[in-house]
Amino acid sequence: MSSQASLSQFARFVRRHAAVLGLVVVVTGAVAVSLYSKPSDESKPLQAKNSTAAGPQLDKFVTHKGRKTLPALIVQRADGTQVKISDIEGSLVLVNFWATWCAPCRKEMPQLDALAARYQDKNVTIVTLSVDRSGASKGEKFLDDLAVKHVTRLYDPSYKSARAVALIGLPTTLLLDENGMEIGRLAGEADWDAPEVHALLDYYLND
Description:
The chain is of the alpha/beta class. It is built from 7 helices and 8 strands; from the N terminus they run αααββββαβαβαββα.
């Protein structure tokens, strides 16, 4: 069969099955878009949908529509003495749940220490709450090796505090007011010494 005859047969096939072929192309294209296209910004949750706050917006930080009462969170200092999170003094208390095996947690620690140093005279307390099963020894060594010295170091090897506040992963950071009420939280990693964080804390300090 000549190439011209083959092309003629192909043309007749395309005309006869044009509708079916068109549907295949459309469906295939739709699948490709759903699998490979980058989600638009409209698909991302907006802070405004999670919050009634009019203050500065920090990426991934979700402000509760009403401040939440936390359950009693009893944790430990490095020497084993117990302390309640609600007893920690400060107009604002930032509680960062972390563990030494969590790479993003480790990355955040110098930023949290810098933030604590920046706000140490503004009645803001930065708490690093390790939930390592091994207790304080591993966390203390890690923080000492990084020369972390401005944060309040606390430990909960039982993981009860993390379960009590319904953590879904590490790191997670809670922002509490002077009454121990939860203003909001950020799940995941953040640059804690960034201008956006400063603006958020300054806003609630003046609230």
